[in-house]
Amino acid sequence: MKFLVAGDPHLDPTGPSSRIDSYADACFRKIQFCIELAEKLKVDYLVLTGDTNGEGIESRPFRIAMKSLMKSSRIPVLSLIGNHPGDTSRSRFSSWETREIGDFVVSGCFRPIIGFHPLLDDQGVRVGSFLGLNAYEYRKNSLPKEPAEDNAKVRVIFSHTFIDIPDPDLSYSTKDLKTKYPNLEAIFAGHDHQQYAPMQLQGVWVFRPGSLLRTSNDESSQRIPHVVFYDTESKQYEFYPVTVALPPNKIFSVELKNNRIGAAAQIQSFHDSLSKMEVKSSSVSDLVWDLADKADSTTRDVIKEDLLSNGFKR
């Protein structure tokens, strides 16, 4: 069986304030890329590692367009349930059905990876199982209580939890998973936004592809997102760069971000100054432009552009 696994998508029409590009456009570009690559590689499933809906999708047009894009995939899409508000509420796994991710499931965009699923060989014969470990589904390192013969069938785990990284609710160790599932060969973990090189622990390959959408300059500024292909028949894997992703300096620019923040503060300061002024012979427009001329050079042009766009003519 062949999988293409993409890290946490964090789909959202606005995105985090740390980004300076169009986050909505990035969402569509990257999901389109994953769908096209999955079809090109002829995988059995495109898998998303959870936090699919990020902070929650307020925009109806964005939601409709994203649903349409996902349903266009000729490859079945599977998704884990993550810990972000778009996937679960108040740390309760059972809440996923009422969140945005539940709406996507009902709409036929993808299926959730809950419990055990059949793992097939190239001839369609069942040769094992793959298992989903979702956010808050099992607490304090507890695992599904299934008969030993079912556990022995598990060869692949998809997890929206840390693997081998301590966390009170969202963490499992490769050693414990291998003990529980003796024929386990590969783990694909989401939740952690950073990308790590694949490693083999306890005879199990552990893949952490990192988030598909980069959400902060601190945790993921110097990387281009990748997705990972895995073939359970040959046990071969390959990482593919998401070629439609913009370089880090185009989405996280501290200088540009600071300039924007500084410009906003200057404009607010102008507004405050105007409210305290007694306008006599000069027009308000002239006063505003006089204030703009006194701004520092790094923000003056930004402020003047804002004034022109708001109807202040000199």
Strand adjacency order, main sheet = 4-3-2-1-13-14
- The whole-number mean of residue pLDDT values reads 84
Decide which structural class fits the backbone.
alpha/beta
CATH uppermost class of the largest domain: Alpha Beta
Please state roughly what percent of the residues sit in beta strands, choosing from under 5%, 5-15%, 15-25%, 25-35%, 35-45% or over 45%.
15-25%
**What name does CATH use for the topology of the largest domain?**
Purple Acid Phosphatase, chain A, domain 2
Q: Counting H and I runs of at least 4 residues, what is the number of helices?
A: 10
Radius of gyration: 24 Å
Full CATH superfamily name of the largest domain: Metallo-dependent phosphatases
How many E-type strands? 14
Instruction: Kindly give the count of domains.
Output: 2
Unreliable stretches covering 5 or more consecutive residues: none
- The N- to C-terminal Cα distance equals 67 Å
From the spread of the alpha carbons, the general shape counts as elongated
What does this molecule look like?
This protein has 2 domains: 2-249, Metallo-dependent phosphatases (Purple Acid Phosphatase, chain A, domain 2), CATH 3.60.21.10; 253-309. 33% of the residues lie in helices and 21% in strands. It is elongated, with a radius of gyration of 24 Å. With 314 residues, it is an alpha/beta fold. The chain contains 10 helices and 14 strands. The mean pLDDT is 84. α1 packs parallel to α2 (60-71), α8 (254-276) packs across α10 and α9 (284-293) packs antiparallel against α10. Strands 4-3-2-1-13-14 form a 6-stranded mixed sheet, with helices on one face. Strands 5-6-7-10-12-11 form a 6-stranded mixed sheet.
